[in-house]
Amino acid sequence: MDSNYIKKLAYSFGADVCGIGSIDRFKDAPKGFHPLDIYPEAKSVISIGKHFPASLFAANTKAPYTLVKNKSVQLLDDIAIKLTFHIEDQGYKAIPIPSDEPYEYWDSENKHGRGILSLKHAAQACGVGCIGKNTLLVNEKYGNRLYLGAVITNIELASDALSRNLCIESCNLCLKSCPQSALDGTTIIQKKCRQSCISSTPGGGFIYSCYTCREVCPFSKISSDS
Ligand code: SF4
Ligand code: SF4
Question: How many whole angstroms from 176 Cα to the centroid of ligand 2?
Answer without folding.
Answer: 10
